[in-house]
Amino acid sequence: MQLRNDARRYGAVAQALHWVIALGFAAQFAIAWYMNNLPFGLEAMWWFNFHKSVGVTLLALAVLRLAWRSVNPPPPLPQGTPTWERMAARASHVALYGVLFAQPLTGLIFSLYSEFPNFIWGFALPNPGHVDWIKDGFMAAHVYLSWAVIALVAVHAGAALRHHFVEKDDVLLRMLPLRQRPARDRRPRAPAKSADDI
Fold first, then answer.
1. Tens of pLDDT along 29-86?
2. 157: nearest Cα among 98, 103, 96, 102
3. 122 by DSSP, 3-state: which?
4. Does 122 reside within a domain?
5. For 3-41, b where at least 16 C-beta lie within 10 A, e where not — what string?
6. Total-model pTM
7. Spatial CB neighbours of 133, under 8 Å, sequence gap ≥ 6
8. Any domain includes 146
C-alpha cells in the first residue's frame, strides 16, 4: 500500500491516523466510564491521569492528521455525487475535526484548573491555580462535547455504510487496507437503445 493518498483511495498514513484516533476515542469513553465509577483514591487518580495522557496524545495525532491532510488531499467523492451530499460531507468533516480538537482541549483546561495534580505520561503539568468557574465551565463543555462526538461519529459511520450498501461505491473501502473494487460512477446513465431505435 502506498503511503500517500491518490485519486482512488487513502494511503497508509491517512488510514493509520484515522483508525488509531477512532479507536483512541472509543477507548477514552470506556476509560471515562470506568474511572468515574471508582471510589476516590490512588487507583482513580491513576486512571484520571491516564485518561488525560491519552487525550493529549489524541490531540497531537489530530494536529498531525490535519497537517497531513493539508499537504495530501483526500480522494474525491465518486463522480455524480449530488451537490447537497458533497456539502453535507464537508460540513460533517469540519465538525468532526472541530470536536477532535475541542474535546481533549476542554478536558485538559478543566483539569489544569481543578484542585488535583495533573500528570501526562508521568510528567507533571504546571498548576495555574484552582479556579472554580473555569473548571466548571470547561468540564460542562467536555461533557456536552462527548455527546457531540457520539452523534457525529454515528452520522459519519451511517454515511459510510450508506455508500457501501446503498450506493455500492468505494467510499468506505478506500479507508480500509483491503483490495478495492472498481469505482462506481453515480452520474445518471442514458437509457439503453432498443432495436426499434436503431
1. 999 999 999 999 999 999 999 999 999 999 999 999 999 999 999 999 999 999 999 9
2. 96
3. coil
4. yes
5. eebeeebbbebbbebeeebeebbeebeebbeebeeeeee
6. 0.88
7. none
8. yes
